[in-house]
Write a structure and sequence with these properties.
It contains 5 helices and 7 strands. Helix 4 links the parallel strand 4 and strand 5. 32% of the residues lie in helices and 25% in strands. The chain binds S-adenosylmethionine. This is rRNA methyltransferase.
Length: 185
């Protein structure tokens, strides 16, 4: 069976992240990916979860507390500043671009900060580690970010990175697609 976009993103991380590693949720939103990563790395591992909105940080904090998770650090800051928080090798990362569902559609991820964050995380990514990027682009501003991110990952040096795009090409209304960047160095 073909996996959906988010399922495939999770599957790829599951294949590549190991217990005890430090991983990043660059856009924690309602915390679903943060909790998924928390389980993947286990009690000895660590999740750094970023969001610029207090609403997202508190929703994720509540879910983490309800489940007794102690391996998550929530960071209310732009992922563009990720380099200020990364202290060790990163086992993998996820970006869910766009806006927080059922929230202010004007607060969206943007090309410049997304690319700065990608650059920072790539420089700490373990060999064979993956950054997965779920690209939602149907909203206002989404097309500009999509094009800039595609342009950025397309020009990554082939000898250093594998870059993959996974998408359903017969769906209507700008369906999301997945990008995955694997560090070969
Ligand atoms: C599509 S939502 C994420 C959904 C989330 N992964 C989940 O499981 O619910 C995108 C999130 O990115 C956040 N965001 C926008 N710009 C950001 C930035 N520069 N740094 C970190 N988070 C940002 C938004 O506040 C929003 O919560």
């Amino acid at each position: 069976m073909l996996k959906g976009i988010l399922d495939y993103a999770h599957y790829l991380l599951k294949e590549s992240v190991e217990l005890g590693e430090t991983v990043i949720d660059a856009t924690c939103g309602n915390g679903n990916d943060t909790l998924f990563l928390s389980d993947l790395v286990g009690g000895e591992g660590h999740v750094l979860a970023f969001d610029i909105q207090e609403q997202a940080i508190s929703a994720t904090k509540q879910k983490a507390a309800d489940l007794g998770k102690t391996n998550i650090t929530l960071i209310r800051d732009s992922h563009a500043n990720a380099a200020d928080y990364i202290m060790r090798e990163i086992g993998g990362a996820i970006f869910n671009l766009g806006y927080l569902p059922k929230s202010d559609k004007a607060i969206i991820t943007k090309a410049e900060s997304t690319i700065t964050a990608l650059e920072a995380i790539l420089s700490y990514l373990k060999k064979d580690g993956l950054i997965v990027i779920v690209v939602y682009h149907g909203h206002e501003g989404g097309k500009t970010e999509k094009e800039a991110v595609l342009n950025y990952v397309t020009q990554l040096e082939q000898k250093e990175y594998h870059v993959m795009r996974y998408e359903f090409i017969n769906q209507k209304n700008n369906p999301p697609f997945l990008l995955a960047v694997q560090n070969r160095k």
